[in-house]
């Protein structure tokens, strides 16, 4: 492409791009002064041409890495046909995508959204509508339960289900009627789930919460109590779903259909980087929506749905779930070996390619040093390194990551043990050190 045909935004210098961002973007993120321009496979590249091994995957969005040829082909084809029709009409990809998601999940029906937060908001509405019944009377069945340590999104309803106080405090008062249950505490669940509860939200594996899994005993009791009291058991699979743990959905490890949730929320990798989320539901709950009760302008457009169908096909046809399981085992084995060398590593946990490394020290310096050395990870809850590499990651890239991480940990350890009189290292990369999951 000649210089004259490069779009003006791309042709701008890195300094001009950063100046425009600093002047005109709202101050919601802390970012390093680096501009990324493109990616290929598991690597992304900055404006200076430097490569970074991405073990964060756009926070679980880029499950197929960057520029997967089949995804690129579908996006180009559909961008030249139609990017949007109104949801007043059918498009050729919504129905087939809903059918494929029903097949993967065991649910019956689907509603498409633009994001994870929007899916959570819609699930809240669906649970409330189901609780009201055909006579429109909720009969006091309006309470909602979520788990301590949870993260469900940034919009007001989703934020009301999010437990961490630093996210909630600036926006109080939030939605009333929400109560939190201690993670994996069956007695606490039994004390709080009664006939007044219309929904229980659970992340089968908490992502922003530090990669903590729900126990089988807790899930099974939640399923039984939700059924007993007529509440919707809602699985938030926005980060842990669609193959991330080595299964189509993380809740499938708890047993067959009788153990599955009533409603599922998904987003992140669904359309391979395009904004698309969904609410999946059993017929009993899906029937609570009828025309006029819910809607979305952009949710389920033809470009996004065609891309999502291709993503699901690639996962099936290219053996992605097996790769997720195998590469996840390799990463965890390598991390356990590093834990024996670096005593500040307390625990390695997770499933598939959703892995947490709990530390005895602040994780920010490790994330910052990793960035300097061309590796992208992040830290949640101050002391848990979070790894969310693409499903396409190869064994050679796992080995490369582990070699680099060893050097990173050695460098951080050396600095920590250096003379107290030494000047502290400059820390320009706090943006990704504690950057949280963003659900618009």
Number-wise, the strands total 17
CATH-defined superfamily of the largest domain: Type I PLP-dependent aspartate aminotransferase-like (Major domain)
Question: Architecture of the largest domain in CATH?
Answer: 3-Layer(aba) Sandwich
Class derived from helix and strand content: alpha/beta
Tell me, rounded to a whole number, the average pLDDT.
Answer: 93
Q: What is the element layout, followed by pairings?
A:
Layout: H1 8-11, H2 14-24, E1 36-40, E2 43-46, E3 51-54, H3 57-60, H4 69-79, H5 94-105, E4 109-113, H6 116-132, E5 143-147, H7 156-160, H8 165-168, E6 178-181, H9 186-192, E7 197-202, E8 205-206, E9 212-213, H10 216-229, E10 232-236, E11 263-266, E12 277-281, H11 283-286, H12 302-317, H13 320-341, E13 345-351, E14 354-359, H14 364-372, E15 375-376, E16 378-380, E17 384-387, H15 395-416, H16 430-433
Helix pairs in contact: 4-12, 5-12, 13-15, 14-15
Tell me what the structure shows:
The structure is a single chain. The chain has 440 residues and is of the alpha/beta class. It has two domains: 3-60 and 319-433, Aspartate Aminotransferase, domain 1, CATH 3.90.1150; 71-317, Aspartate Aminotransferase, domain 2. Helices cover 38% and strands 17% of the residues. The protein contains 16 helices and 17 strands. It has helices spanning 8-11, 14-24, 57-60, 69-79, 94-105, 116-132, 156-160, 165-168, 186-192, 216-229, 283-286, 302-317, 320-341, 364-372, 395-416, 430-433, and strands at 36-40, 43-46, 51-54, 109-113, 143-147, 178-181, 197-202, 205-206, 212-213, 232-236, 263-266, 277-281, 345-351, 354-359, 375-376, 378-380, 384-387. The chain has a seven-stranded mixed β-sheet with strand order 4-12-11-10-7-5-6, sandwiched between helices. Helix 5 packs parallel to helix 12. The chain is globular, with a radius of gyration of 22 Å. Mean pLDDT is 93; it is low at 424-431.
């Amino acid at each position: 492409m000649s210089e004259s045909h490069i779009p003006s935004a791309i042709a701008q210098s890195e300094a001009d791009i950063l100046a425009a961002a600093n002047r005109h973007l709202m101050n919601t993120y802390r970012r390093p002064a680096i501009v990324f321009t493109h990616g290929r496979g598991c690597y992304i590249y900055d404006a200076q041409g430097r490569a970074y091994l991405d073990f964060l995957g756009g926070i679980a969005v880029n499950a197929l890495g960057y520029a997967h040829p089949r995804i690129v082909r579908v996006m180009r084809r559909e961008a030249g046909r139609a990017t949007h029709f109104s949801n007043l009409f059918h498009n050729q990809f919504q129905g087939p995508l809903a059918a494929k998601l029903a097949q993967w999940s065991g649910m019956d029906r689907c509603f498409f959204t633009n994001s994870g937060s929007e899916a959570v908001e819609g699930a809240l509405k669906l649970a409330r509508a189901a609780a009201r019944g055909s006579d429109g009377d909720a009969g006091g069945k309006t309470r909602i339960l979520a788990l301590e340590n949870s993260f469900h999104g940034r919009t007001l309803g989703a934020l009301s289900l999010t437990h961490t106080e630093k996210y909630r405090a600036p926006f109080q008062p939030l939605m009333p009627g929400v109560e939190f249950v201690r993670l994996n505490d069956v007695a606490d669940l039994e004390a709080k789930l009664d006939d007044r509860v219309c929904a229980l939200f659970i992340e089968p594996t908490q992502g922003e919460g530090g990669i903590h899994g729900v126990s089988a005993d807790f899930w099974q009791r939640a399923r039984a109590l939700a059924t007993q009291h007529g509440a919707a058991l809602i699985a938030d699979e926005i980060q842990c779903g669609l193959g991330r743990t080595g299964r189509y959905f993380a809740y499938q490890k708890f047993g067959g259909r009788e153990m599955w949730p009533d409603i599922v929320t998904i987003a992140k990798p669904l359309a391979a980087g395009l904004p698309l989320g969904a609410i999946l539901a059993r017929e009993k709950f899906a029937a609570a929506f009828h025309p006029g009760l819910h809607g979305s302008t952009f949710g389920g457009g033809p470009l996004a749905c065609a891309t999502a169908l291709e993503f699901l096909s690639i996962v099936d046809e290219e053996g992605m779930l097996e790769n997720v399981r195998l590469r996840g085992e390799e990463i965890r084995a390598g991390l356990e070996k590093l834990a024996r060398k670096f005593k500040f590593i307390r625990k390695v946990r997770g499933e598939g390619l959703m892995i947490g490394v709990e530390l005895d020290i602040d994780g920010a310096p490790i994330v910052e040093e990793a960035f300097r050395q061309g590796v992208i990870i992040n830290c949640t809850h101050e002391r848990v390194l979070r790894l969310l590499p693409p499903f396409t990651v190869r064994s050679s890239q796992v080995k490369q990551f582990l070699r680099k991480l060893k050097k990173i940990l050695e460098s951080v350890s050396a600095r920590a043990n250096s003379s107290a009189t030494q000047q502290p290292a400059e820390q320009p990369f706090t943006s990704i050190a504690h950057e949280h999951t963003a659900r618009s």
